[in-house]
């Protein structure tokens, strides 16, 4: 019996035989072509694009029997990549100017795009590199003359692979697999999103599990704790079978109160559940109908592969999101990147430590023309709905004063030119300890707080949550973090402004009671967490949450705080009891 630890990407339990899927990556060598072959090489590239489009459309159609139609946006995103000027036009330019083979030109362009994604601090954006890798590999395969022929896998198998593309996963779902585990990946890849959409248990980021298992091994996939157990004992098989049955009961329980007009605790406290949105395609699902709006609309994806974007193009993207929200609140966060992440796409100086340098609001204030363009687009989109603007990584009141002055100048200019625009509220992302400590003063200058618990925890504890060597130290319920969260909420209440949690804590069933105990009533989360959050909130009382908070503080230094949270969940969800 062996165990492997990774990241739980789509919760659940799967028990079955392993199918080790070998997904070979096309090899590309540098090759220079004669000028007379340029047109033929470009034609080969365009033919590969056409075949890849057919392949994606095929798997999109294939998915219709297994995947909610609302998630077809994932395949639409892939189709958009095939039309992206940075990917397509730059590849063709390299073929023409450098006489590179189409394969080598594509791989060069792909590496540049992947590098820009990889350097992002945002996990979702960072993992878009996998989308580019999957598209590139499929293009390279078709340029080599290979068509998609599929692969054989028994139903109820647990697939073990180095990585899986969304199209490959849909094909495997069609074959009836019960779960998968991969060396690579994270919770926010499109493959993981699909897995959650169809309730397929998945564990990713396992490093080298595909090299350690053989087809036919008996496997338990524990996608709660992110564990793969190989050739388990009879006792383990029995215990996990029971846990699997309990989880099925839990999933059914989530759907009971789906259409309640409001989400309230058992003692009548209303809680607003909002969405964190990356791209407009996510809004094609019906998830907006059971949420209170968009608590965090990230704008970084607009820029990441294209650099600067024209005002009108930004306006159309944001307008689409605002209209989709049908009058519900939309909180748009201004540009939240910088440093080495966009060095090849937008102007930026060389920095020793870009993560703590010219990024987010600091970048926007440095490059005011860029910032003004974004503010104009947001204000114009606000004419179509209920929009607020939120500024990230604010650390001083002077920054708030500066951005409000620029915003007023933009309003005046739009008004003088007769361009329609809407009224907006302004707020800040509280994610730096300085902002939390000074929250009472900051609250006098803004209409709301959005609390970014991911970075607040990271900066407070001095821990890079993406560093595998210290990730276990990253603890959002560390007493220091809880103290800052209390301070922020108290400052908001004292100044009669709203405070919303929009970090990962907001959608975590274990941590929602902690946030309610702290007084937070606005939680913004990934769309995939809304159903769980609704269920959790409607089965709690605020009094019990406050009592839990007190006991957490008492038990922290006994290293028992997470066990206490799980016990609390078991006490309140006896009918599902999916945590052990």
Can you give keywords for this protein?
globular; 580 residues; 8-stranded mixed β-sheet; 45% helix; 8-stranded parallel β-sheet; alpha/beta
Largest β sheet strand count, sense and barrel closure: 8 strands, mixed
Measure the end-to-end span: 21 Å
Mean pLDDT, nearest integer? Answer: 85
Helix content: 40-55%
The count of β-strands is: 16
Can you tell me the overall shape? globular
* Tally of DSSP helical segments: 23
Query: If you compute it from the alpha carbons, what radius of gyration comes out, rounded to the nearest whole angstrom?
Result: 24 Å
Give the strand content. 5-15%
Can you characterise this structure?
It contains 23 helices and 16 strands. With 580 residues, the chain is an alpha/beta fold. The protein has an eight-stranded mixed β-sheet.
Secondary structure blueprint with pairings:
Blueprint: E1 2-5, E2 7-10, E3 13-21, H1 38-63, H2 73-81, H3 85-98, H4 102-118, H5 123-126, H6 129-143, E4 158-161, H7 166-174, E5 179-182, H8 190-197, E6 202-204, H9 209-212, E7 218-222, E8 227-230, H10 234-254, E9 272-277, E10 294-298, H11 300-304, H12 311-324, E11 330-333, H13 361-366, H14 368-381, E12 387-391, H15 397-416, E13 425-430, H16 433-437, H17 439-442, E14 448-451, H18 453-461, H19 479-494, E15 498-501, H20 512-517, E16 522-525, H21 530-537, H22 542-555, H23 561-572
Parallel strand pairs: 3-4, 4-5, 5-6, 9-10, 9-16, 10-11, 11-12, 12-13, 13-14, 14-15
Antiparallel strand pairs: 1-8, 2-6, 3-7, 7-8
Helix pairs in contact: 1-6, 1-7, 3-4, 4-6, 7-8, 12-14, 14-15, 22-23
């Amino acid at each position: 019996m062996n165990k492997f630890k990774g990241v739980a990407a789509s919760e659940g339990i799967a028990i079955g035989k392993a199918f080790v899927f070998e997904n070979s990556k096309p090899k590309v060598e540098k090759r220079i072509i004669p000028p007379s072959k340029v047109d033929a090489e470009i034609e080969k590239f365009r033919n590969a694009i056409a075949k890849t489009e057919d392949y994606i459309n095929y798997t999109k159609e294939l998915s219709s029997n297994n995947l909610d139609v609302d998630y077809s946006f994932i395949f639409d995103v892939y189709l958009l990549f095939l039309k992206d000027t940075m990917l397509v036009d730059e590849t063709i330019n390299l073929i023409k100017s450098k006489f590179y083979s189409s394969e080598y030109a594509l791989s060069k362009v792909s590496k540049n795009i992947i590098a820009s994604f990889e350097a992002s601090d945002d996990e979702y954006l960072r993992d878009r590199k996998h989308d580019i890798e999957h598209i590139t590999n499929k293009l390279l395969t078709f340029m080599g003359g290979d068509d998609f022929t599929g692969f054989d896998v028994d139903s109820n198998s647990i697939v073990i692979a180095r990585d899986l593309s969304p199209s490959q996963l849909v094909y495997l779902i069609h074959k009836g697999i019960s779960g998968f585990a991969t060396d690579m990946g994270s919770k926010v890849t499109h493959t993981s999103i699909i897995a959650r959409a169809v309730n397929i248990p998945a564990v990713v980021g396992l490093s080298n599990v595909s090299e350690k298992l053989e087809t036919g091994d008996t496997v338990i996939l524990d996608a709660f704790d992110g564990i793969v157990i190989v050739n388990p004992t009879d006792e383990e098989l029995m215990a996990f079978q029971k846990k699997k049955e309990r989880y099925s009961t839990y999933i059914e329980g989530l759907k009971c109160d789906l259409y309640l007009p409001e989400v309230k605790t058992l003692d009548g406290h209303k809680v607003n559940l909002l969405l964190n949105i990356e791209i407009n395609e996510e809004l094609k699902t019906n998830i907006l109908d059971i949420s209170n709006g968009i608590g965090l609309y990230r704008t970084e994806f607009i820029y990441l592969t294209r650099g600067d974007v024209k005002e009108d193009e930004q306006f159309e993207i944001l307008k689409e999101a605002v209209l989709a929200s049908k009058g519900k609140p939309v909180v748009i966060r201004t540009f939240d990147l910088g440093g080495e992440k966009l060095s090849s796409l937008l102007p930026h100086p060389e920095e020793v430590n870009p993560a703590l340098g010219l990024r987010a609001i600091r970048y926007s204030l440095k490059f005011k023309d860029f910032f003004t363009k974004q503010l104009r687009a947001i204000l114009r989109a606000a004419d179509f709905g209920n929009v607020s603007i939120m500024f990230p990584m604010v650390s001083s009141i002077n920054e708030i004063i500066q951005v409000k002055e620029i915003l007023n100048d933009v309003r005046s200019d739009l008004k003088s030119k007769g361009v329609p625009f809407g009224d907006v509220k302004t707020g800040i992302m509280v994610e730096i300890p300085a902002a939390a400590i000074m929250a009472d003063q900051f609250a006098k200058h803004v209409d709301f707080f959005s609390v970014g618990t991911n970075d607040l925890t990271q900066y407070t504890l001095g821990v890079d949550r993406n560093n595998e060597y210290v990730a276990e130290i990253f603890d959002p319920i560390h007493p220091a973090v809880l103290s800052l969260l209390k301070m922020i909420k108290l400052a908001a209440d004292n100044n009669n402004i709203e405070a919303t949690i929009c970090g990962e804590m907001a959608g975590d069933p274990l941590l929602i009671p902690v946030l309610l105990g702290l007084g937070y009533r606005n939680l913004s989360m990934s769309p995939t967490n809304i159903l769980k959050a609704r269920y959790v909130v409607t089965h709690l009382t605020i009094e019990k949450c406050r009592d839990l908070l007190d006991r957490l503080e008492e038990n922290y230094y006994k290293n028992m705080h997470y066990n206490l949270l799980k016990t609390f969940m078991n006490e309140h969800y006896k009918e599902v009891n999916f945590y052990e």
